[in-house]
Hints:
Oligomer: single chain
Shape: globular
Helix content: 40-55%
CATH class of the largest domain: Alpha Beta
Amino acid sequence: MAATVSPSRDYSSLLSLRGNNQGVSRTGDPRASANLISLIYGYPDAGSMPTTAVAEATTRVMETQGEWALQYGRTLGVLPMVDALIEKLARDNDITATRDEVMITAGGSQALALLLDLLVDRGDTIILEEPTWMGFIWMLKNVGGKAVSVPLDEQGMKLDILESKLKSLKAEGITPKFIYVIPNFQNPSGVSMPLDRRQRLIELANEYGTLIVEDDAYHDLRYSGETLPTIYSLDTTGSTFYTATLSKIMGAGMRIGWLVGPADLMAKLSVLKVDGSTNVFGSFVAAEWMRDNLAGHIEELKQVYASRRDAMLDALEANMPEGVSWTKPDGGFFVWVTVPEHLDLTALQPFAKERGVEYLAGSTCYVEGGKNTLRLSFSFATEDQIREGVRTLADIIAGELKESSL
């Protein structure tokens, strides 16, 4: 007879500080979202997945390198994937890197988690944008780090406020471990940091003795405007880590990302990385697929996502009531919407879901605040769904504004 476990057992005394400090799971389910008009997460477009080309690449790998694709791999990443990435970085990102400066990770999120493991002790200070990617806020909370937020404007992090906060921290004897930024099509706001701010950010990091972590997950998905150099390529002092991912341009299920940084620090990270090399089989397949397919596939994705972005911006313009504003991104997956301060868009989520629409409450992207904001993703829903979903949200918001004015 099989043993049963009592659901009422209290495990709290056995949990770590991190384990006891958790809420409910925040992981979404793309299959469940497919039953709604899903404007919530940055899921890649299902219809654009390169399934046939990946299947063909898999067959070639198994025929020619199967004994190594199914074996343990090099800690920093198997060399075919590392070399394919080094080639891409040089071509697309103006980044020159050696094998010892590149680590393959389980998506960009593992790269950030490893950096936190390397650099941050409980109570250490990190500077981040406000708002920022919610996943990083959760990771920082997990390690007990202290967040100092710097607000954004339409050109990214406000560096005058950053400088003021760096001065204040220095006066307290605090050196932030790093500044976390998403300079291209920032998640969640969609805004991008211009060249002069990127250069000034490097100057400030060096002046105050801290590092920069550049999260560039959406770099390849630019639909308008001029391509800007990465912060990493501008920094000649070795103060920047660079991370990105195949999740948005090949498939999130590959769970392949990368981290680029100084070789001596990458060596330390390799000791902290205890997974026996990231997704060896998937790395062989991705490297094979990238050689002949990556550039063309990115161009196809840009057409799909540019049309969806335009559909969302047009729908917002046509339907949102007065007093509502939104960003107009040059790329990426997201539009950031702000409503009058007295509305709570977190509280409105259940009403939207009852009407078949899901969105991300902006408060999840703040350490504190943001209840009058929301993030809309245009990557997963079709253009018709986007238009219908925005009309529904506009109707809900207009109703709340009308009720609050009575």
